[in-house]
Structures are given as structure tokens and as C-alpha cells.
Design brief:
With 438 residues, the chain is mainly alpha-helical. Helices cover 57% and strands 4% of the residues. A 4-stranded mixed β-sheet has the order 3-2-1-4. The radius of gyration is 25 Å and the shape is globular.
């Protein structure tokens, strides 16, 4: 698959473009939930180039077949076109041509070759990034398709090693990208918001090989340093969860939270910013529990990873709040039912079942009082019915039957030591796709 087209004019229609030229169109009453699961599965299978956009690809813009990557000269020319548009070609067309020729997972020829008169790729990528964010385009009057294309072009550039490092190394680039992100989020367009969040995810976690953990730490610190910005992202996330819309946006936000809070990615998150974000997410714990009833299993897995981080890494009061919400929102009984009565040999179902088992252990650890009260309430309701039957039968003495409540059991902290403050985090493999697809 090359990409998924999420049609803007029809809320149920989407198409799949294949690299061999076929395009198949489908309709679904819950399109975004289906697309979130589909993108997660495709990336987990190893296709890192899959992406979602608003309009079909103009295949005539690509200088070569989709079955093969373009050569180094084509990539270099399109990087230069972003700086100086060719005559008779608008900037919107330049960006669309760039997206058609450059892989969504990043530039294939992004490192300067060790040969005579070799072109400096790092300088070329940095110049293209600056040209893209400094372009005098008014987002208020621009077409949504053009705004989405610009952020997808940014995502392609920052997915490379040079673009990933340029976020903090090039003076003024971080501020300019941040300004465009804030303006784009105010458009309240689901396609644009998803493109923005996907680009931010590529800045949080390197999508290239041979990455530098120090650079990852620096990028995370730069993105998470603004509490107001993080609050804005979580507000967008909470709004869509409450409305039951924007499954792709919810999925992309869960990726962002996974890269910031969940192991092993949290090893490169600064401890101060980690605690601030953890508390902001904990305040919205009820929103996270709503996601456990979401039809997309990719979102359910992502919510489970975030909840696991909240219980393991949060303070004792945070863990207690999450355990109380697990009972009040019905998440614990639901997960217990799935864990005990799932009958399937499908590996995907078994994976979800294992994840749910871990979540149950975290929710029930040192929470005997709450679980016993829940069970006792069920027993009491059965006992009251039995007493009523006996009273009608003449056995009034049975009315005194009442289960005894056990004494309070002290809470034992079994979460283990926190490890996010390590100065030299261990080396790990780059993600195949989304954070919780592994």
C-alpha cells in the first residue's frame, strides 16, 4: 500500500492506493476507527511509508514508478525546489511533487557521501526546512489540502537524521515550527490536526536508523517545555474522546504520550517534564478509561500503555485515583471478563489478552478493599433477594443475614523503582511504526 485517502467530502468514504497503480474505494460507518486500526497494523507489518491524506495522489508528479524508490538526484532536486520554485510552478505544486517523490519514512539519501565533490545533504535538508516554514503562506486563507501537504512534507524532512537534529540545532527553526503548529490546530480540521500530530510524533521519536539518544532527549525537552502547549494538545485529545470522534487524532495523541511516558521511550524524557505531563494526563484519567470501550483495538492498546505508565510511574495518590476510576468506570470488570472468557487462537486477540492481563494486575495490585467491596455489593444484592424470598416463606430470622466486611488491608507499593532519570539510557531498536504496535 502507498497511502490511504480519507475523503473530506464524504465522512464514510475512504480509498486505498497501491504502489502498482490500483485504487480501491470503501465505505464504513465508523471510518476513522477502522483507519486507525488499519494504519497501526500496516506499520506494525513493516510498511513505514503508509500515511493518511485528504485527496488522491497525482501520480504524474512522481519521477519514476511507485514500486521503486527514486534516485539520489531526484531527491536533491526536489529539496532545491522547496527553496527556489521553478518557473511557472506554484509553491503548492512544489510541495505536492515533493510528497509524491519522497518516502513518508524520510529521505533515503540523507547522509553526505564520502566522495569527491559530494553534495552536503545536511545543509540541503536544513535549507529546505527553513524554506518550508519561512514561506509566506497565510494559514487562515490557505486550502486545507495545502496545509496538510506542508505538514506531511515537514514530517518527511524531520524523519531523516539531519532533519531530526535540525529541530534544535538550527536557530529559530523550533519557534517557527511551533508557531505554524499552533495556527494549524486552531483550524479545527481533523485532517490537518492529524498531520500536525503525526509530525510531532516524528520529532519525539526518531524514525531513522543509527539515531542519537542525546538528540532525542533534546527534542523531547524542547517540545515538552511549554506547559501551555501540552495542555492544548490534551484539550484537543479530550474533546474528541468526549465527542466520540477523531479516532486518528486520538491514535496520534496516544503515540505522542507513549513516546513521552511509556517504557522504553520514557528513558529519554526529562524527569521534570515527565512528572508534569504525567500529572496532566492523570487529571484526565476518566477520559483514558473511556478509550477502553473504543471499537479500535489499536486505541485500546495505546490507552492501556498510558494507563500502565500512570499506575507504575505516578505517585501513590495517582495510582489510587486510577484504581478507583477502574471500578467506577467499569474498566476492571470488563477487562476481567475479556481475560477470563476470551476463546480464540488468533495471535492478535491473544496479544490483547496478555496486555489486558497486565492491566488487571496493575489495577488490582494492593487494591483489595475496592475489589472486595465490589464483590460484596454483588453478594449483598443476591443475599437481599434471598432474604426477601425467605421472609415471604415465613423464615423471618433469615433477615439478619449480612456478609461481614473484612478489615482494611494496607496498600503495598509494588510498582518498583522509577528509571526515567537515567543520564545514559540504554540503546534500543527503532520503532517499526507506532509506539504501541510492538
Amino acid at each position: 500500500m502507498f497511502c490511504i485517502v480519507r475523503h473530506a467530502e464524504n465522512p464514510q468514504l475512504f480509498g486505498i492506493e497501491f504502489i502498482k497503480g490500483q485504487t480501491r474505494t470503501y465505505s464504513s460507518t465508523d471510518r476513522d476507527s477502522l483507519l486507525a486500526t488499519l494504519v497501526d497494523g500496516i506499520r506494525a507489518a513493516g510498511n513505514r511509508d503508509i500515511h493518511v491524506k485528504m485527496f488522491p495522489t497525482k501520480r504524474g508528479y512522481r519521477l519514476g514508478p511507485f514500486t521503486l524508490p527514486v534516485d539520489e538526484e531526484v531527491e536533491s532536486q526536489h529539496l532545491k525546489f522547496l527553496q527556489i520554485s521553478p518557473g511557472g510552478m506554484t509553491f503548492s505544486e512544489v510541495v505536492q511533487r515533493f510528497n509524491s517523490n519522497i518516502s513518508y519514512s524520510g529521505l533515503l539519501h540523507a547522509v553526505t557521501q564520502d566522495r569527491l565533490f559530494a553534495e552536503n545533504k545536511e545543509r540541503l535538508i536544513n535549507s529546505a526546512l527553513l524554506a518550508l516554514v519561512e514561506r509566506d503562506t497565510d494559514l487562515d486563507v490557505s486550502h486545507p489540502e495545502d496545509i496538510e501537504a506542508q505538514f506531511q512534507a515537514l514530517r518527511r524532512l524531520v524523519a531523516s537524521k539531519a532533519g531530526f537534529a535540525a529541530f534544535t540545532a538550527v536557530p529559530g527553526l523550533r519557534e517557527k515550527i511551533g508557531s505554524r503548529v499552533v495556527k494549524a490546530l486552531t483550524k479545527n480540521n481533523d485532517a490537518i490536526t492529524y498531520a500536525v500530530l503525526d509530525m510531532l510524533g516524528a520529532l519525539m521519536q526518531p524514525m531513522h536508523d543509527d539515531y542519537d539518544l542525546r538528540q532525542e532527549q533534546s527534542n523531547k525537552a524542547s517540545l515538552m517545555s511549554s506547559k501551555k502547549f501540552m495542555e492544548g494538545l490534551l484539550e484537543v485529545f479530550a474533546t474528541h474522546v468526549e465527542r466520540g470522534s477523531g479516532a486518528l487524532i486520538i491514535s496520534a495523541t496516544l503515540d505522542f504520550l507513549t513516546f513521552a511516558l511509556c517504557a522504553p521511550y520514557s528513558e529519554t524524557t526529562d524527569g521534570t517534564f515527565f512528572d508534569e505531563l504525567l500529572e496532566m494526563v492523570a487529571v484526565r484519567g476518566r477520559i483514558i478509561f473511556r478509550l477502553f470501550q473504543h471499537p479500535s483495538m489499536a486505541i485500546v492498546k495505546g490507552a492501556g500503555l498510558v494507563m500502565k505508565a500512570l499506575i507504575e510511574e505516578g505517585e501513590e495518590d495517582v495510582a489510587t485515583r486510577m484504581q478507583d476510576l477502574a471500578l467506577s468506570e467499569g474498566a476492571l470488570p470488563k477487562h476481567l471478563h475479556i481475560s477470563l472468557y476470551t476463546q480464540s487462537q488468533d495471535s492478535r486477540v491473544l496479544t490483547n489478552r496478555c496486555a489486558i492481563n497486565q492491566t488487571i494486575q496493575l489495577k488490582s495490585c494492593s487494591f483489595y478493599n475496592g475489589i472486595e467491596c465490589l464483590l460484596l455489593q454483588s453478594i449483598e444484592s443476591d443475599s437481599s433477594r434471598a432474604v426477601g424470598d425467605r421472609q415471604r416463606g415465613g423464615h423471618a430470622a433469615a433477615a439478619s443475614l449480612h456478609p461481614l466486611r473484612p478489615a482494611a488491608v494496607p496498600r503495598i507499593d509494588r510498582r518498583g523503582p522509577r528509571t526515567r532519570h537515567r543520564q545514559n539510557p540504554p540503546k534500543r531498536q527503532p520503532p517499526v511504526g507506532r509506539g504501541h504496535s510492538e
